[in-house]
Amino acid sequence: MGGFDRGGGFAAGLNPRQRVLVQGRAGGTGIFAIQFAKHGGAHIVATASRRNHEILRALGVDEAFDPAPRAEVSRATGG
Predict the structure, then answer these.
(1) Residue from 57, 39, 40, 45 nearest 19 by CA
(2) Which helix (H) or strand (E) holds 13?
(3) CA 5, CA 76: separation in Å to the nearest integer?
(4) Cα angle at 67 between 19 and 9, to 5 degrees?
(5) C-alpha to C-alpha distance for 14 and 24, rounded to whole angstroms
(6) Cα angle at 22 between 77 and 30, to 5 degrees?
(7) pLDDT digits (tens, 9 = 90+) for 29-56
(8) In the 8-state DSSP scheme, what is residue 64?
(9) What are phi and psi of 57, to 5 degrees?
(10) Which residues are CB-neighbours of 54 under 8 A, at least 6 positions away?
(11) First vs last Cα of the chain: how many Å apart?
(12) How far apart are alpha carbons 5 and 74 in whole angstroms?
């Protein structure tokens, strides 16, 4: 929980220029991470099966990818 132990919490360390990758999680843990990253103003990239992309976008994900084409995810996250 290293990201949650500073005074301002996890989201306090994020800014709009940062990218956060949430992998393969349209469930509880992923939704939690998306909410924190969105609150911090980060650009969110997520991987999940295509059937969950609409849900992820409704939660604030900026880019959603199927986990199989890793080259797309690497481009979106800068590495």
Answers:
(1) 45
(2) none
(3) 28
(4) 35
(5) 21
(6) 165
(7) 888 888 888 888 889 999 888 888 999 9
(8) E
(9) -65, -40
(10) none
(11) 24
(12) 29
